[in-house]
Amino acid sequence: MPHLSKSQAVVLAMGRFGIVISQSSGLTTVSVFLAELLGKKENKVRQQLREWLRDAEDKTKTKNGRATLEVTSCFSPLLSWILSLWPESQKRLALAADASTLSDRFTVLRFWQVSVGGEVDANLPIM
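and the corresponding structure tokens:
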């Protein structure tokens, strides 16, 4: 996603990689895994991941301030990426979307391909 800063992209990729490979979304599990893999201190990795989830006003202050990410700005680049992988012979793409929210802190957005008959292809979670 080209609109992310380098540090935002690195922490986003690092965190999602840690979740997928460790098969856990727990901050401690992911932090321990990534710290071991990257040769970093666990608390440093944990803090990087925690900062990613916070609003700008709640982040640790620096002289340059901290940016917040408007989540909706990610939808178009993600959909463009999905469509770039789609076969050119198929002109239409039907997606089912689900946004699951945990409290007011965490939202998971998932998309699935929906076949012509309306069935959801459960074997193809796109995100």
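(Above: one complete record from the training split.) The beta strands are 95-102, 106-114, 120-125.
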